[in-house]
Fold this protein.
Amino acid sequence: MASMAWILIRQVWLLAVLAGLAAPLFGQGEAGPAPPRTVVRDEAARQRLLGAHRFSLQWISWESFGRAEVTEKDGTLSIRASQRHEGGGDFIEMEGIILEVRPDAFIFQGRIVTQVSYIFGGQPCKREGTFTFRVTGKRKYWRLKEMQNPCDDVVDYVDVYFQ
């Protein structure tokens, strides 16, 4: 009887291995798949992007900036940014990974949440997906290309400034 149980356990394990399920069954891979490595098409742009930056949404302030931090782990660049209105509930938060760095742009995948008292009834507006931040002309910042606010009929200027 013990040998029958052993054969059954072995068959379940073999099926799990074949199905790619063995790692979760045995306590490995619980954190999920690793994020994709950032594709770097321009090393100077990558260096400019790493570190701390000013961050803004025009509805909150162009005088009192927020902060964006770009870090790198295992070849993947991540960004976390926020700006809050002093004395109010308005804010922008952004968090995710950078899929690609180009000389004049970076491709971001993650979420952006904005809340402005007079836009979308003062409710949070959430965007999730892939977005492009690009530099045009002589600007000293990357601006969100997808500027149309998905929750209201306004245009958002979301900017990450050079250091």
